């Protein structure tokens, strides 16, 4: 086993940080590191937090982390911010909101740049989660890039997805319908002290109701404490998304949110959904890896044949066309693969 | 940025430490570093040395840029450096200080292990070049 992994498993923060760096940079040998981590994973609850820019994701994550710490749990946070499409640079500002966990090393907070990914996460996020999981974190919170409509990669990595919807975003809520409404396990109407909060809750409830004609429950943030009866009906296959109102800045509604989160976690275990979810995720991950590796192989092949530019020039000169170029490059590869496959099965 | 990005990205923490509410400079530098292709983590105002240490260790930054305009650099910077040493994070972090630092203090900071002190009038290009050349190798 690599010394770095040994140190990580022994609880060395520096080693954990360095492993994540290697994962992010795709540094030589990072794959081996991740492979070695794998057997130590599977124990953390992975919670994704997404929502539009300024909806309060960072502040809520800070409060969730602090509350978990009060319960004696350890927390890992990965917060992703966008990278510049021009320079690749980034300003990662989510850490500013981590005011409740000052100097507490048992909250391991890591900022990540999306590094060009458009799905709200970076390609390294899943592996970074794995590092935190192997390190022994009980709860892992992933904060996505401020999400618009289509940044839904979080659903592939998190076990529970919180979608933050700020009040007064009536039209925005309409817009959210197609993408984000489909991935939220829990909808958090944050900044619930602002005008328009009730309406947002109402609109969310209505739209969630469209899913199957039922109206899910609401947990008030003013201590009504009563959780809707629909929670008890979750033995079946489908989780009814909950709506929780919070004022993250003041910590209001956070306890209720944690209760709902715990409900979702026990639903995942009780219904076998966690197992199914993990299967789906690993399948997707394997597919993605294979796709990336294949892309790399093909990039290598293109370079070996004189680079993309030379093909582009030929296409410009009408000597060939994009389809023929693709065929010319991929077909020999495909032939090799098929030959080998026949060999193996012989 | 494609899948083939084994090329490393320089990560910097731009830190405002202590009772000093002037962050224009830190913002300008964060922006310039971003435009230079660095990943910049900005600490926000009024951070305690232990927070800066926590952030430097967890974020595994190559460069820690401490901005101090309050004159308290002679107590805050040593605290940060001690903290980094405790986590084994000092050797491979490039520590820079920016702000209003008297000449005699500058020598002290450099002796402590600060790599460079940038005062008023330092140009962005100069700083970016310094960081690009001196960012420690990650192994």
What does it look like?
The complex is a heterodimer of chains A (346) and B (139). Chain A has helices spanning 3-9, 13-25, 30-38, 57-70, 125-135, 154-157, 170-176, 197-209, 254-270, 273-304, 308-316, 322-345; strands at residues 45-51, 75-81, 90-92, 107-113, 139-143, 160-164, 186-189, 218-219, 242-245. With 346 residues, chain A is α/β, with parallel strands linked by helices. Chain A folds into two domains: 40-272, Rossmann fold (3-Layer(aba) Sandwich), CATH 3.40.50; 283-345, no CATH class. Chain A has an eight-stranded parallel beta sheet with strand order 4-2-5-1-6-7-9-8, with helices on both faces. Chain A is globular. Chain B has a domain at 41-132: 3-Layer(aba) Sandwich (Rossmann fold), CATH 3.40.50.280. In chain B, helix 1 links the parallel strand 1 and strand 2. In chain B, helix 3 packs parallel to helix 4. Mean pLDDT of chain B is 90; it is low at 1-6. Chains A and B meet through helix 2, strand 3, strand 4 and helix 10 of A and helix 1, strand 2 and helix 2 of B. Strand 3 of chain A pairs parallel with strand 2 of chain B.
């Amino acid at each position: 086993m690599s010394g770095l992994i040994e140190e990580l498993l022994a609880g060395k923060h520096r080693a954990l940080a360095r492993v994540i760096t290697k994962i992010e940079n795709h540094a030589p040998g990072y794959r081996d590191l991740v492979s070695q981590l794998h057997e130590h994973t599977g124990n953390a609850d992975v919670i994704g937090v997404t929502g539009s820019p300024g909806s309060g994701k960072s502040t809520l994550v800070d409060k969730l982390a602090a509350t978990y710490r009060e319960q004696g749990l350890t927390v890992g946070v990965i917060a992703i911010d966008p990278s510049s499409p021009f320079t690749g640079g980034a300003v990662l500002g989510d850490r500013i909101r981590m005011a409740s966990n000052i100097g507490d090393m048992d909250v391991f907070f890591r900022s990540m740049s999306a590094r060009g990914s458009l799905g709200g996460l970076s390609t390294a996020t899943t592996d970074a989660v794995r590092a935190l999981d192997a390190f022994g974190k009980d709860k892992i919170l992933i904060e996505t890039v401020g999400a618009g409509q289509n940044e839904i990669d979080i659903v592939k990595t998190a076990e529970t997805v919180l979608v933050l919807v700020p009040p007064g975003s009536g039209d925005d809520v309409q817009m959210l319908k197609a993408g984000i409404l489909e991935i939220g396990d829990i909808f958090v109407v944050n900044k619930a002290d602002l005008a328009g909060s009730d309406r947002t809750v109402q609109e969310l409830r209505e739209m969630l109701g469209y899913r199957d004609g039922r109206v899910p429950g609401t947990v008030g943030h003013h201590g009504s404490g009563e959780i809707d009866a629909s929670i008890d009906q979750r033995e079946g296959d489908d989780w009814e998304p909950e709506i929780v109102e919070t004022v993250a800045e003041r910590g209001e509604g956070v306890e209720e949110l944690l209760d709902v989160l715990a409900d979702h976690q026990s639903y995942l275990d009780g219904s076998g959904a966690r197992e199914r979810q993990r299967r789906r995720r690993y399948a997707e991950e394997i597919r993605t890896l294979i796709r990336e590796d294949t892309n790399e192989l093909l990039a290598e092949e293109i370079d070996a044949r004189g680079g993309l530019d030379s093909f582009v020039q030929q296409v410009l000169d009408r000597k060939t066309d994009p389809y023929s170029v693709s065929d010319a490059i991929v077909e020999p590869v495909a032939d090799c693969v098929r030959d080998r496959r026949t060999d193996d099965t012989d | 940025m494609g899948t083939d990005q084994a090329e490393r990205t320089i990560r910097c923490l731009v830190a405002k430490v202590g009772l000093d509410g002037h962050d224009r400079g830190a913002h300008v530098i964060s922006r310039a570093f971003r435009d230079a292709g660095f990943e910049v983590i900005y600490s926000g105002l009024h951070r305690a040395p232990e927070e800066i240490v926590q952030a430097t260790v967890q974020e595994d930054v190559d460069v820690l840029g401490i901005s101090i305009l309050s004159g308290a650099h002679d107590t805050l910077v040593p605290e940060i450096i001690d903290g980094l040493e405790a986590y084994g994070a000092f050797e491979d972090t490039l520590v820079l200080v920016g702000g209003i630092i008297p000449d005699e203090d500058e020598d002290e900071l450099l002796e402590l292990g600060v790599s460079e002190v940038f005062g008023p009038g330092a140009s962005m290009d100069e700083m970016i070049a310094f960081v690009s050349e001196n960012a420690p190798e990650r192994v």
